[in-house]
Amino acid sequence: MATVGYCSNxxxxxxxxxxxxxxxxxxxxxxxxxxxxxxxxxxLEPLLVAAAANRSSANAAPAPETSKxxxxxxxxxxxxxxxxxxxxxxxxxxxxxxxxxxxxxxxxxxxxxxxxxxxxxxHFSDPDPVPETVAPARAPAAPAPSRPAITLPAMSVPTxxxxxxxxxxxxxxxLIVIAAVVWMxxxxxxxxxxxxxxCGSDAxxxxxxxxxxxxxxxxxGGSNVATSPFSGGEATxxxxxxxxxxxxxxxxxxxxxxxxQIADGSCQVAIAGRPPTGEELAKIxxxxxxxxxxxxxxxxxxxxxxxxxxxxxxxxxSLDAVRRIFTGAETSWSKFGGENVPIAVIAPxxxxxxxxxxxxxxxxxxxxxxxxKHLASLPAVSTAVAHDRNAVGVVTFSDSSPAxxxxxxxPSHGYVAPSVxxxxxxxxxxxxxxxxxxxxxxxxxxxRFVAYLASDEAQSAIGxxxxxxxxx
Length: 472
Description:
Radius of gyration: 48 Å
Number of helices: 11
Mean pLDDT: 75
Number of strands: 20
Distance between the termini: 108 Å
Structural class: alpha+beta
């Protein structure tokens, strides 16, 4: 049984243009004219023989047209192979790019089968062509019984109609699922009442307050410790404990605000930069009769420092020079060994413990220059100074980075730079923070936090935050 192929190199190859079929042999898979790879059509001979037999028996159909080389041309129809059924043979047809098998009734002999025209790019050598062998005709096969073509039914998606009550139930179930997912994604400690509030100096707005509260919760076995940033002067730290979720709030409005919050009951523990005044103590004792008149104990020490831009050549100043700079009496850095550029003063907002003590101990009650720029936090002051080559600011030593700290002159020790060794000893502007916790508050969590502040772990946290731990 022969196997034939066709060439698709139309317009260039005479074999392709004539639509001639070519025998495929073991050593021939290319067009003998152009060398283009042939497209095989396997086992086509039975169909060609059957078609020839039908034409001979009918003797009514005209003789097929032949090409120059005597071969039977194959008509083209859209480049698809269409081999119709003749005398019970299988019909191969193309419908929308998919092959369809069908059984067709006996009919008059159809046209000669068409051959596909899929282009190819492989080229081979061109050996001598082999003459085509024409198979002898044979009697037509007996007609096969007619059967209807196999047709697949059209597919459709059924419409599902739900009762109104079922739709409502599905919607409610969906809302429940969404609520459950949201509840799982949002930390549970971010909601609910706080166990207690820690308030006090604006130094708490830095690392110290967060480190102390986080350490306390972890020491109690807390996990999933999370913090929220300061918003409206308050931040929170939360954790999951065996007894449930615990949440503690931190406020950093300054010592005056802290004592006012102790008096109105909105704050239970304070870490302040000074003891309460007589007026503040009277208001606190109106709520807590046994409230102490001063610090329960010391917590940490820090230094009030003057900072300049890291590119500023000025590295040390006397306290008198600092006073003249911040009051506006001197306005050029050239007076202190710097460049001949104007001085830009930056300071924390009024109410800050740092600025209150700086005003008392350095400015001696004089007003800050009217050109000074005020910022809400100590870290913001340090950052602004570090980005302004002409700037000078006042902050704490623990919040001085990334600005440059200036050494200050002392009466007996010369110029002293702030450090963990000089703060509280030789540095002239040290600041001491103390714990204030009124007795009888009835808050067990706050009482445990007060006890935690005396631990070695808490003292290490104080040192890591840039403060000098106070002796217990």
